[in-house]
Amino acid sequence: MKKKTIIPAIIILFMISTNLYGSTDGNWVSWGAKKTMFLFNDKTAIGMNKNINAKLDKSNGTIKLKMSIPLDKFDSGEPDRDAEVVKMLKGDVSKNLMYESETFSPEKFEQLRNGQTDQISGKLKIGNKWFDVVFAVKIANNKLSGQVETKLTEFGIEPPSMVGGIMVSVKDYIALKVNLDLSTLPH
């Protein structure tokens, strides 16, 4: 009897996580964090944001990818966690995360569009502080998919816990993913 219950639950969890974290449609940013519940049950929490403002800034003969990511639009399926994420990401200082890529020459940007570049360096602004980040990227058919995995403490964020880490303990880990259709971005 337990096997019949477990298999549909696994399928549902897979469908939910694929829908939140692995969708290739549209422009979005997501975060993934690992947590331990009750000292032994590891889980991944995921927050998705499809309300980003991304553009290609073309000036002085160069190109830069810029994104403004509203903190209050991340959806993890748990409103209390989403509110806590806004606090952790200094939502009282700035309502948006900001990202600016490295500056590309037109030739380097074409290499990026053609999939000849496998990483993009840039800066991520949390609150009023900028942090260096390097996204591993894949590009196909003008669609950019990127990810960076690092530690929360690299962004000056202490992993939260509840009841001294016995109930819930968040690992010092964060994955940031981005999906952009470069052909839809204003410039």
TrEMBL record:
Source taxon at top rank: Bacteria
Coiled coil: none
One protein family per Pfam: YceI
Signal peptide as annotated in the record: none
Domain Lipid/polyisoprenoid-binding YceI-like: 47-180
Record-given protein name: YceI-like domain-containing protein
Organism of derivation: Pseudobacteriovorax antillogorgiicola
Lineage: Bacteria, Pseudomonadati, Bdellovibrionota, Oligoflexia, Oligoflexales
